Amino acid sequence: MSIVIAIIIFSIIILFHELGHFLLAKANGIRVNEFSLGLGPTLVGFTKGETKYSIKLLPFGGACMMEGEDNESEDSRAFNNKSVLGRISVVAAGPIFNFIMAFTFAVVVVAILGFGKCEVGSVKPGYSAAEAGIQEGDEIIRLGNKRIHLFKELAFYTYVHQDEDIDVTLLRDGKEKTVTLKPTYDKKEKRYVIGITGAGYEKGNALQVLKYGFYDVKYYIDTTLTSLKLLITGGVSLNDLSGPVGIVSTIGDAYNDAKPGGALLVFLNLSVMVILLSANLGVMNLLPIPALDGGRLVFLIVEAIRGKKMNPDKEGMIHFVGLLILLALMVVVMFNDFRKFFV
């Protein structure tokens, strides 16, 4: 069941990503030859107008295939024959639609569940928070130079800076106060903590729902960027990454954990997975790596600055090399996923 649910979630996220490319292509008068869900051989498809709509054999992936996207074309409606700003809008639309999707689901979750501000619910004795005089009802608004709004931002920040002193700015009776805390390893919880718990979730008005829905998406974007930074600096290794297999397992765990609580809890848990994965896909696709949307945007921005297109053969070769590197990385990640099941 978890595999079926994971495929459905992946399909919805990827379909929405490709829909962004598709709609902006149509808006810019670009001919779309095929709009597909999945990769590989076509299982089923039909043609409407000038576009073929199809479902492919492999359930992971999708494509919006535009005329003249990867080669020269004499068609006036070909991708490469449109203005550079039009092409930028088409390429950027995919990741932007992922952020829109993440925000939509975040708003729904916040409207149903509420939002967890970074307000202190209780303080545990023997930890740095108690020693620094933090009290119940204090609202933590800044960690170092980083402004925060959600309690889970505090937990993630503590995890990333577990061996460092953390400057914590809190709000008490309308006045700001800054204290320095040192995370301590808690053997029972098996993680570094500062000794506070959150005040829980609260419901809000429509404006607060929108605001905290935005903060929720921002949190997942920040965690993705921070994780990438840790990967580059050695804070985490490739062994810590999860690919499709690991994500399917995580989705399965989320479904199984929520199932006893009923349909609403299942929906909320899986919606959180959609927010996480959609925001993550949006960020990853904007990275300036050849073959990704971000890599294509780099070439388009350079073209806009130079006022001259790059040699399409050279650009195509760069994207091809980038694709090979990404495929190699995917193989390594999937190998780690399978290895974790047997270790």
Features:
343 residues; alpha+beta; 2 domains; 9 helices; 10 strands
Short description:
The chain has 343 residues and is α+β, with helices and mostly antiparallel strands. The chain has two domains: 2-112 and 275-342, no CATH class; 114-236, PDZ domain (Pdz3 Domain, Roll).
Number of helices: 9
Rg estimate, integer Å: 23 Å
Q: What is the residue-averaged pLDDT?
A: 87
Number of strands: 10
Helix percent band: 40-55%
Total domain modules: 2
Termini separation = 24 Å
Walk me through what this model shows.
This protein has 343 residues and is of the alpha+beta class. It folds into 2 domains: 2-112 and 275-342, no CATH class; 114-236, Pdz3 Domain (Roll). The protein has helices at residues 2-27, 84-113, 128-131, 151-160, 206-233, 244-258, 263-286, 293-306, 312-342; strands spanning 32-48, 51-66, 120-123, 139-143, 146-147, 166-172, 175-181, 184-186, 191-193, 196-198. The strands form 4 sheets. The protein has a 4-stranded antiparallel sheet with strand order 5-4-6-7, covered by helices on one side. A hairpin with a 2-residue loop joins strand 4 (139-143) and strand 5. Helix 1 (2-27) packs across helix 2 (84-113) and helix 6 runs antiparallel to helix 7 (263-286). The longest helix is centred in the C-terminal third of the chain and has 31 residues, at 312-342. The chain is elongated, with a radius of gyration of 23 Å. The two termini are 24 Å apart. The model has no long low-confidence stretch (mean pLDDT 87).
